[in-house]
Amino acid sequence: MQDLLCMNNDFPPRAHCLVRWYGLRELVVIAPAANNEAVLSESKCNLLLSSVSIALGNTGCQVPVFVQIHHRNRKMYVGECQGPGVRTDFEMVHLRKVPSQYSHLSGLLDIFKSKIGCLLTPLPAINISIRLTYILQDWQQYFWPQQPPDIDALVGGEVGGVEFGKLPFGACEDPISELHLAATWPHLTEGIIVDNDVYSDLDPAQAPQWSVRVRKADNPQCLLSDFVTEFFKLCRRKESTDEILGRSAFEEEGKDADISHALSKLTEPAPVPIHKLSVTNMVHTAKKKIRKHRGIDESPLSNDVLNTVLMYLFPDAVDKSADGSEVRTNTPAGSIPPPESEDSNLYIQFKSAPPDSLTYKLALCLCMINFYHGGVKGVAHLWQEFVLEMRYRWENNFFIPGLTSSAPDLRCCLLHQKLQMLNCCIERKKARDEGKKVINLEKQKDTVDRDYPKESDKEKGEVGKSWESWSDSEEEFFECLSDTEELKGNGQEGGKKGIAKESSKEILVLKPEGRLHPYGTMKLLHPGQPLYVPVTQEPAPMTEDLLEEQSEVLAKLGTSAEGAHLRARMQSACLLSDMESFKAANPGCCLEDFVRWYSPRDYIEEETVDEKGGVVIKGELSARMKIPSNMWVEAWETAKPVPARRQRRLFDDTREAEKVLHYLAIQKPADLARH
């Protein structure tokens, strides 16, 4: 009842029609269910109202109750509200034609006073709230929502068509059908405003309150929405790239496949779960079969469109040499600028790709091609060419543009991580191949200049800083342990016990290898020689799927003692490699020397007084290093003095690159849309 007298809820912005008409904040509506017939007869309406009146009287409920009558689109209601000693009936009348006296304030006040039926004269002043709404509908004809199409454009004169890398935005038709301007005069008193059929003081320009409301068109055609919707539809496609294009571009046939598999078996360092992909197989069969089994005229993408997309994705391939061959830059793409802190915090929950990265550009091109150039067939065609470009860059040591030169970023999508992994493999392979050339030059110089073997050995040791250069791209380069290396190991034990041999042969055996630089002024404990930082292998980069596989393997080992020991050995591969590099760089060292460099917190030093009264600093390993069956002690005893350049690679770039290329080749268009 209080809501009927309150004027604060006269014009709510969004509310039920009864709220706007009566100013109620709480109400109950009784309406027929969706499948039931409307209340059309007067007898049925009276029956419902009497039932509502009885229910309100029995319960003492003061909330108004309305019954919807006639058809739903008429919005016609009758209702009742009961309070202590007061009852209010709500009734409605629909008129086909509005009488003239109902079109101005004076006529409405006369009706209101007659309905009240108050016998007091004169009547108290009536409070009024007025809102006049003006509707604008005919402005669409004055401008185009989109620029007129360019018939000569690459996208074929489509509305909203732009170049690759920019998705169209906006609606083809105006999404706003009506614009409502409401001029409001709240809390007025009768007599202040004159509004009749002859004169009116209600000038919208003088209204104290203005409000604007828009009415949207039903399902307008919006370009960006259409693009994204069509792209999301790819997620429901089940076909593979080979099925869409008609025949596998990576299919093996005849003797070529047998020969390639035979070569793969001979050259691969370890078995790789790749059945249809190898370097030789791709070189001899893949590119040839694409054009052989699918003519140029049958390709979903024309040469102009395909070349434009590839040049956009790989801008480093734009320059051409004089003979027409393609010249590709060997430097990585410029580092992607870090995102702003606010944007980074806002989007950190999503898995996407950095702006202007290769993955970002690829997603834009796939979306554009899916909508304008052949749909899923165009997507499959572009992806096939993209995979071939990735293999070409891997085989020819060309970096992939648009990617940061770092380990895979786990915050990005899996596809972006895979491309980063492939770039890491290219970087390792390129460094190894370039280092190999330097070593060959050093060997030639060694052969010519035989009078200075020691200086040549020093230069060779400096070149050894790039450990990756000592292993061929197609093999692991493992050296069997010879008798000389066993003597080295014995020399290590002798150094630990303080035993020194003076023979020139022993000095030659203990020659250090793989030194980077001295570790400050620190010296080895027993020989007293300077302690050198060794050249070590970098840890293997990992993508999120590889981390999951590794976690599953470690979890399957169980909680038994044997499983825990095996798990520790698997996780200490990098530690063992660093120990071997340290032994090779510091002949005669002991575990304490390694701990002082690798984990200084595990070497505790104390000041003591000797027999002569002088202060002497003595150190020992921490308590956790003295635990029986300590993995550090076992690894140290197992480690042999092998420099990083002759160790087994922790990161097999050849195998990992083939795994990435295989992953890319088997991706379906649906997988691309999900990633």
Task: Characterise the protein shown here.
The chain is of the alpha+beta class and 675 residues long. Among the domains are: 1-94, no CATH class; 223-247 and 303-314 and 348-441 and 651-674, no CATH class; 542-649, no CATH class. 41% of the residues lie in helices and 12% in strands. It has 23 helices and eleven strands. The chain has helices spanning 2-5, 17-22, 42-59, 105-116, 223-233, 241-245, 254-267, 279-293, 303-313, 341-347, 358-372, 376-395, 414-448, 453-463, 483-496, 504-509, 544-556, 561-571, 573-585, 591-598, 631-638, 653-665, 669-674; strands spanning 28-30, 65-69, 76-83, 86-90, 127-136, 176-189, 209-216, 515-523, 530-534, 603-609, 615-621. The chain has a four-stranded mixed beta sheet, with helices on one face. Strand 2 and strand 3 form a beta hairpin. Helix 7 (254-267) packs antiparallel against helix 8 (279-293), helix 11 runs antiparallel to helix 12 and helix 19 packs across helix 21. Keywords: Cytoplasm, GTPase activation. Residues 447-467 are annotated as: Disordered. Residues 447-465 have a biased composition (Basic and acidic residues).
